[in-house]
Amino acid sequence: MKRFITHQEIAALESIIGSNVRYIGGPYMPEYLLAADVVLATDEGAIELFGETDSLEFQGHLDDFSYFVIQNATQKLLNQTEGSGNIYKQFSGRRILDVKVLVEDIAATQEGETFWSDRSAVAILLILDRFVLSISKMSHHMELLQITELLPGDFAKAVPDVSLRFDDDLIKSHSVSRSVLTLDELKVIAE
Q1: What is the mean pLDDT of the chain?
Q2: What is the pLDDT of residues 25-71, one digit of tens each?
Q3: What angle do CA 75, 77, 83 make, to 5 degrees?
């Protein structure tokens, strides 16, 4: 089961660094930039980002958890996106200076022992000249992705805080930590 960023996905992200955004869109992306399938077209190529889910055991129950899939966009997908008219050019001409990934680690402990943990990429952060373009998961359980514009350093706003979803008691506790990783740092821990 794939759950984290792969080396092939890192290579796809690396391929857009230094290029200029042409458009962001998707065959079914509305103007509020929320879709299960996102196309980022640049002057040097295009990538596709979409969400998938897999079932994982959490606190004795199976639950669906989402993850990113990142790959080079096919010409068929580009034709579908452009043919649908769902292309948005408000970021057009902006140079992608870098790409980082917001990673979230969740752990559940009981009496000091970790009995469940999950590491997930929750947002792809495109570092542009004056702002950051975030492509993030809507939740840990849905395939939907949202595109938002952030100020540099506002990475925590890319995704909602999930720590409120956990009920801690005297025996069980949960911890949530987030970190922004460079692609080089991801290569060390990628699948």
Answers
A1: 87
A2: 999 999 999 899 999 999 999 999 998 777 766 666 776 777 889 99
A3: 100
Number of H helices, E strands in the chain: 3, 11
Q: Please classify residue 85 by burial: count the beta carbons closer than 10 Å to its beta carbon, then call 0-12 exposed, 13-18 middle and 19+ buried.
A: exposed
Residue of 121, 115, 118, 119 lying closest to 173 (CA atoms): 115
Query: Parallel, antiparallel, or unpaired for β 37-42 and 45-58?
Result: antiparallel
How many CB atoms within 10 Å of residue 61? 8
Identify the three-state secondary structure at position 185: helix
**Structure token pair of residue 177:** 């930590």
DSSP type of residue 89: -
User: What 3-state DSSP class applies to 102?
Assistant: strand
pLDDT band at 8 (very low <50, low <70, confident <90, very high): very high
Coil, strand, or helix at residue 183?
Answer: helix
